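During the no-cost extension, the postdoctoral fellow (Dr. R.K.) reprocessed legacy sequence entries with the updated structure-token encoder. One reprocessed record is reproduced below for audit purposes.
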Amino acid sequence: MGGKRFTAPVTVHIFLREDDKILLLRRYQTGYEDGNYSVVAGHLDGGEQVIEATIREAREEAGIELSPEQITITGIMHRFSMDERIDFFVTATEWLGEIYNAEPHKCDELAWFSIHDLPQNTISYIKKAIELSVSRSEIWFDSYGFENKEG
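Re-encoded structure tokens follow.
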């Protein structure tokens, strides 16, 4: 039992919603899923809570300010994609400021899409999380990607 303990990256994904629309961003020059749509997201820096990371990422990527009261935890996903990860999904329907692309070196488009008609090139686990969030009123949990894991 004295060996190295397993750790997994932890990410927060933000569903910015206006009625039946969701804000998606197209990844650009990141080396991961470039050209595909995702949502505002980022890793926890360590020593910060999920809500704090949500506020920071919304500011860094979309130029908006969120308060803790504007954030609702929507779901949690234990995911395997080249490595094992834990993802938190949160929703906000109100914020301060105008949304803009604050990281054009990582994102070449921010656009609103219907939650019922997502682009074909939406990252698969993001699409699954949106579908779960739309179809359930309570916080959901899902495992994703383990069926493709080797070993």
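The beta strands are 10-18, 21-27, 37-38, 40-43, 72-81, 83-92, 107-114, 140-144. DSSP finds two helices and eight strands in the chain. The remaining legacy entries will be reprocessed before the final report is submitted.
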